[in-house]
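Render Elongation factor 1-gamma in 3D.
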Amino acid sequence: MHHHRTYISLHKPYPSYTSHLSSLSVQRLGFEDWTIIVDPMALVLHAGNTNKNGFKALIAAEYSGVKVELVKNFEMGVSNKSPKFLEMNPIGKVPVLETPDGPVFESNAIARYVTRLKADNPLFGSTLIEYAHVEQWIDFATLEIDANILRWLIPRIGFAVYLPPAEEAAISALKRALTALNTHLSSNTYLVGHSVTLADIIMACNLTLGFSRLLTKKFTSEFPHVERYFWTLVNQPNFRKILGEVKQAESVPSIQSAKKPSQAKEPTKPKDEPKKEAKKEPAKPKLEEAVAEEEAPKPKAKNSLDLLPPSKMILDEWKRLYSNTKTNFREVAVKGFWDMYDPEGYSLWFCDYKYNDENTVSFVTLNKVGGFLQRMDLARKYAFGKMLVIGSEPPFKVKGLWLFRGQEIPKFIIDECYDMELYDWRKVDITDEDQKERVNQMIEDQEPFEGEALLDAKCFK
Ligand SMILES: N[C@@H](CCC(=O)N[C@@H](CS)C(=O)NCC(=O)O)C(=O)O
């Protein structure tokens, strides 16, 4: 790996010198070093395929170009209790990573190991203070977020004694942590610096358990920046590949302890380490399975917008006209829009970001809008949008124009794209010339817009 780094660093900053330097480095490194470069050994991770603690290393591996594979046929409660496994981790917990130099347990340590396999990995940050902040947020994600989610969740699903005051304490500690996280994220896209770090990976994995099992929309809406951050991360390709689609819990699990006769019969020893429960007989439901439990994917229903009476307006034709018009935008694209527009089959909407005063950092604001458009991907067949980031200095205003199939904002968009509720929505009255002119200006990115410069204009098409 060390030679790998030498080789890459000779190449990267000086592309024009590549041929000269690569022949040098080949001579210097010899054949074995090349095999390291082209055939990195896959590391084996022992964990079930729904274990968020295993996901930390798998996502870090995706970002780092490292090969990590889940062990085949892992069975929770059986595989991790075998003598061979206990040699790797005497406590019998997962995940465990097998490396050429021996095993590593504890998911954060495993994720750090995988991350260090890539030299100078930006997942750790790039300055001393960034390294420290990455570690700071990893501990925070573990001790303030994850620990309190587990203290709340585990008793509810019947793996520890349920005590109302203990639950209350867990919830208030979690809210305290989320409040701090929300404030940090109100002016930062990521936890540290301007790109994803290992801290974000670990935080997102911990939040995934929370969002999918426990934290309903009602609960998380108090923390809108955490929501934005979470949904943005889990929809990044490197996360999505490992996590699949994350769905938010619709309710807090009802208290299970009383409903499980097999457990009720056992002497009720209060447990301070809730996870010890899972160590009992394999016949019982296993904690990890209970925690990771996923609903079977439902077959996809046809979109109800496809059942609307056909429209003479072909959305793709408009998008093509918009994209292909380079000059005389008013005369060609804007005029073309109104020629095509079908007010029966489509509706136009203005949107206005509700929290403009929080848009104090330009790139954070641009990332927010970028994330919104990314999440609108699911509406591509039924929508066109323009989003303007307005102002030459903070706080920036975010305003937009959307064209939707049908007369209402499609319900599936409201349900699936949480950004929708961060905006006030107003249907355009096209009989009002002023509103129509505002539509034209937004289609055109007219500058100044309402007296102000544009920081950016993004289009969803
Ligand atoms: N701090 C550990 C937690 C590991 C852990 O609690 N693993 C659970 C599954 S998520 C487990 O193996 N439970 C089985 C047991 O307690 O025997 C880590 O992050 O790796």
